Amino acid sequence: MTEPLLAVRGLTTEFPTRAGVVGAVREVSFDVNAGEIVGLVGESGSGKSVTGFSILGLIDPPGRIASGSVKLAGRELVGMAPRDLRAVRGREIAMVFQDPAATLNPVLRIGDQMALAIHAHERVSEAAARARVAEVLTLVGIPDAARRLDAYPHQFSGGMRQRVAIATALLNRPKLIICDEPTTALDVSVQAQILTEMRALARDTGTAMVWISHDLATVSALASRILVMYAGRVIEQGPIRSVLSEPRHPYTAGLLASLPARSEAGADLPQIPGAPPSMLALPKGCAFAPRCGFASPACEADPDPTLAADRLWRCHHPQGIAA
Q1: Domains, the chain, with CATH or none
Q2: Residue 202: what are its φ and ψ, rounded to 5°?
Q3: Which of 206, 212, 283, 295 is 20 to 30 A from 289 (CA-CA)?
Q4: CA dist., res. 50 & res. 53, Å (int)
Q5: Where would I find the ABC transporter domain in this sequence (predicted)?
Q6: Bond preceding residue 270 cis, omega within 30 of 0
Q7: Are 167 and 142 in contact (CB under 8 A)?
Q8: What is the pLDDT of residue 262?
Q9: pLDDT (tens digit, 9 = 90+) per residue, 215-251?
Q10: What is the reported pLDDT for 10?
Q11: Where are the beta strands (DSSP E) in 192-232?
Q12: Burial classification of residue 70, based on how many CB atoms lie within 10 Å of its CB (0-12 exposed, 13-18 middle, 19 or more buried)
């Protein structure tokens, strides 16, 4: 069996506060294969972004990875020396953040700041660096890229700035890119263009991606597999078509039911009742039980993960959803 490019096992990330310890990510495990796009979805506060930051070792103190393993191509990243980890970031694994305006330095020309990402990992001439920058900008759909190298971020539209952020992540030809809701702030037409380009990049370059989003529709158009997070834990995962057509967790079913495309025109959208729990005071047993229409006394015990073929879920009553 081929070893996965990314293997996350039992990842737990905590943030000590005056009120107690927040377990933002709890025993998360999943794999990503080379050239694969995996979607990571859930409501705000479910632990999606913290999972991405934990994989790259970007958790600032006093936050910490309390336990677990993150292996990239068989190499353990948790506990790696900071100097070694900096050499891995950008070269073998990269990240595209949600807000390109915060990612790009407003006082540096696009070509100069992108070239810095190349010089951080290898010794090349300035001319060679600029040539590669222009090549990658063209790859993500920036027209007349060589001429735009001397432009500043404010001279680009929001969609173009996001393309620049994606191009920066691609500069050193990483094996894996973690995309943290990179198209959320863009209009629908620009979003569709970027999704098409990202699919082509994964197919043509073999770069794997973890696509973090709260938008099931976007993930369904992009990913081959999906992981659904709730209260810091993966509660369901599997092939995208299988999970979306036959959800095995009531939270997944609730997210799907709230999609506008699944409702009649003019009808109120179904909602998941209640709100996500405080990570400082999680309910006993299943964290989703207080919002679940299938909850029973059995849900006071934490559900063990159920494995069936290429699917996984954590629920005491999955057959009720199917019915």
Answers
A1: 6-92+176-322 (3.40.50.300), 102-173 (no CATH)
A2: -65, -40
A3: 212
A4: 5
A5: 6-256
A6: no
A7: yes
A8: 64
A9: 888 898 889 999 999 999 999 999 999 999 999 999 9
A10: 96
A11: 208-213, 225-230
A12: buried
